[in-house]
Amino acid sequence: MNITLIIPPNFSIQMLKEEIINIKNGYCDFTKSVDWSPAIPIGSLYLASILKNNNHDVHILDLHRAFFKCREEGYFNRFEKDLTSFFNEHLTEYFKSNNCVDIAGLSCLFNVVSTTVEFIAALIKKLSPKTTIIAGGHYPTNMYKEIMPKGLFDYIILGEAEEQITWLSKNIKSIKFNELVQDNPYIVDQKTFQSESKQPASIAELDVLPFPILESLPYASDYLENSIDSERVGTNVKKKTFKSMSIFTSRGCPMKCTFCASHKVHGRKVRFHSIDYMINYIEYLVDKYEVNNLLIQDDMFNYSKKRAIDFCNKLYHKYGDYFNIEFPNGLAVWNLDEELILGLKKVGLKAITIAVESGNEYVQKNILKKNLNLNIVKQKVELVKKHNIGIRAFYVIGFIGETISMMQDTINFALDLDIDWSEIKIFTPLAGSEMYELARKKGYMLGDTSEHVFGRCAISTPDFSAETVKEIQYDGNIRVNFLNNKLIRNKQYKEAEQTFKKLVQKVPNHFFAHWAIWIALKGQGKTEFAENEHNILKELASNISNAKLIDKYNIKL
User: Is there a smaller number of Cβ atoms within 10 Å at the N or the C end of the chain?
Assistant: First the structure.
């Protein structure tokens, strides 16, 4: 069968329209905007590999990457194009030139992409009425009873989709297919979506899956060098050419955090690929694509400390210190010790990410139910610092039940922790999570849930307004990452210059990033370059918004 797997632009229709307006107006602000860079679609690669192994003709159409390229190359401002033009030229043209697509599979990760996925499905129905349209991912798995009545999708696969999309592709031409779907607990259609017997699929033995090979992905080399995680602001890794690849060594998370819905797709039982499977896959990535930066995306990589150390030992035995290794989703800080830290450092860990979430004990125990001991966090951070490894942390504010004072505790905790970079986000109710259901029940959600994205406050409660949370988040980011930046305070001016220049590449007009560069250049005695940066600052200071910030934070130019 001819199957096209479609990655949508990873934000809502409204956000895409807003971004096009921002591009045309020259607006951008790191603390309020999102990162539009493409990510390697590892989930679609798993699907493509297993489908190809079953003799299907599989193509991947990454519309998120297409939107990013249009954004970077002046498509929307220089050529005066809009969102309709974008979809006409990238989706309409695709289906015109591929008029025999049997199945279109749409990935829908979270709430924020739902309107875009529905828009694409509706357009495909017009362009290619005979194409079977299926959806999968976190949002469809959790919200299929609300999605299916819209009539846009023929089938939704619940949970982990590799085995189910193979089953569907094999059986879809059977005259008894509707009966087969009725008996399959992991797939819903228009007739079965109300059935209480449906449940998410889970793959018990991960090693049965074929490698998610990159040959299925057009422009694979470009992804390896320019993905969203290949160079991340806030790390101090020495500049080199990275070829970065996301990998999963496990699935599942045993934690019961109220804000997370990962367990609704991958379950609470942690399942592992064998270490031999992973080493063989890494060997393929190195031999064929010269990958040297491994982005391990597990929810709980170090759930088993013994396995994590065994992985490090086998990787080092084969490759020594060839790799840089990162954990974009973070590591379980409670299960870090010196042996594991040294093992990870040995195979290339230069910077570690920890998910703290909240700096308030009450929030940890009673609201998030994460129960992370903040004193242990401090101890583990000092242990990591001891071995000269960079540290980033994730924080979230604006949870249901949290007060303004509790949010300020998180900002103060981030200041006291004294690490390289702190990502301070605003709580987003994710479909399928306990807190999402609470927000709906209490009537706290603001507007369409498809507009809920980190960086935009999506709820208002008796304890706070959405605007207050935005102000706390913005202020916290400025104070923690810029005005009290660790590198600048420690007079590591060269590293500070590198860090903030990387940020300016993404957000050219960010006042505080230019201020930090100016301080770093002066600290190094680079007088001429500092003067040029000072001129940029004076020009940015003429902006009314920046002038207010200069006054608020008592910035001396």
Answer: C
CA-based R_g, the chain, Å: 24
Q: Which CATH number is 145's domain given?
A: 3.40.50.2300
Are the CB atoms for 493 and 512 separated by under 8 Å? Answer: no
* Residue 330 to residue 510: CA distance in whole angstroms: 27
Whole-angstrom Cα distance, residue 421 to residue 232? 10
Residue 71: how many other CB atoms lie within 10 Å: 20
Query: Cα dihedral angle (108, 38, 428, 545), rounded to 10 degrees?
Result: -140
DSSP assignment of 179-227? HHHHH-TTEE-TTTTT-TT---B--S-GGGSPP--GGGSTTHHHHHHHS
Considering the domain boundaries, does residue 400 fall inside one?
Answer: no
- Is 351:423 a contact under the CB 8 Å cutoff? no
pTM across the whole model: 0.93
Residue linked to tokens 């819209």: 150
Range of the domain at 499: 486-557
Low-confidence ranges of the chain (pLDDT < 70): 28-33, 229-240, 450-455
Chain centroid to Cα 524, Å, comes to: 35
Phi, psi of 187 (to 5 degrees): -130, 135
Residue 95 covered by a domain: yes
- Residue written as tokens 């060839």? 322
What's the per-residue H, E or C state across 228-270? CCCCCCCCCCCCCCCCEEEECCEECCCCCCCCCCCHHHHCCCC
In a domain, 120, yes or no: yes
Q: What is the pLDDT of residue 227?
A: 73
Report CA-CA distances (Å) from 73 to 67, 69, 84, 93, 281.
Answer: 10, 6, 18, 20, 34
What lies within 8 Å, CB to CB, of 394 at 6+ separation is 330, 353, 354, 355, 356, 357, 423, 425
Closest by CA position to 106, among listed 121, 94, 96, 91: 121
Last residue of a domain, one of 138, 168, 188: 188
Number of domains in the chain: 2
Which of 132, 153, 188 corresponds to the end of one domain? Answer: 188
| Burial zone of 404 (CB within 10 Å; 0-12 exposed, 13-18 middle, 19+ buried) | middle
pLDDT for the residue 255: 94
Could you tell me if 223 and 332 are in contact, meaning their C-beta atoms sit under 8 angstroms apart? no
> CA-to-CA distance for 1 and 13, rounded, in angstroms?
30
Angle at 452 between CA 449 and CA 458, to 5 degrees: 90
Q: Is residue 389 part of a domain?
A: no
